[in-house]
Design goal:
Elements lengths: L7 H15 L4 E6 L10 H8 L4 E7 L2 E6 L4 E5 L4 E7 L4 H4 L2 E7 L3 E7 L5 E5 L1 H9 L12 H9 L5 H6 L9 H10 L13 H20 L40 E3 L7 E3 L13
Antiparallel strand pairs: 1-6, 2-3, 3-4, 4-8, 5-7, 6-7, 9-10
The structure holds a DNA duplex (16 and 16 nucleotides).
Length: 286
Amino acid sequence: MNWPVPELPEVETIVRDLRPELTSRLIENPRLFYSDVLYGVTSRKLLAGLRGRRIVEVFRRAKHAVFLLDSGVRLIIQPGMSGVMLVYRGSPSAAEQRYAVLTAELSGGSTFMYRDVRRLGTILLLDEQGWRAYTARIGPEPLADDFRVADLAARLGGSRQAVKKVIMDQHRLAGVGNIYANEALFRARIDPSLPADRLDPSQVARLYRSIRTVLSQAIASQGTTFRDYRTGTGARGSFQFRLHVYGREGRPCRRCGATLAMTHSIDGRATTFCWRCQAVRSLNDA
DNA sequence: ACGAGGTCCTGCGAGC
DNA sequence: TGCTCGCAGGACCTCG
């Protein structure tokens, strides 16, 4: 079975679960167990930046969980593909401590833990200016009220690369990873290998709707869990039961019954699709 | 600008 | 049964 990555819906779910547990808490005793997840900050600076600070806001940007501290500094955790963020009442057990990357005792007696088995996740600590520069390089939020079809069209228009690769490019569009790219393209009945600038207006409109629908439905289902991902309360998501293509290669299309195919020819990542519904002509190695 | 490929990391499962 | 090895993946990087 393929292993999912926390994408936008999973991080949104985590953030919603963590927000009431973390907001207004003091970070009393931060501990870092692996420094290879740090990006642009040393262990010493990270811990010094966290110790004694109060968490004033918890929110999501793209696939990042962002913790705004009372110093104006932001702790940013991107959970990579196996990252989990949890709050324990009291202290976690030794078993729960396994694979812990960052833990922090909080005022009120609870403990925050970022756990990441494969440590492909990233931790950043950015001041106001650093954050502004960082977020400016990420594309627009597809679920934002002011994100329109024209914005998606503009993001696709300048690229001859495969549309699947383009919608997964975080600099063009925020939060869409492999699972939801596959699902959105299937639901929009678009060939994932189609060059992005070759989509006609009706295809762009369908893709716009399918991206927003699939992300919204996944949030409502608390995300997709195959093995690693857990919500902020440790529960499993349930969107895996509503997937149409991801992880279903060799099985019948839910829409037309044709056998779903899989290829790695787009950016080396697993692309699952229906030849018939998505009118795919040229993908090989499937 | 674009594609291809390597790097990070660990658990798992296929294959011998 | 016990081992090795390839694969999974996002983001970032270099090379051609």
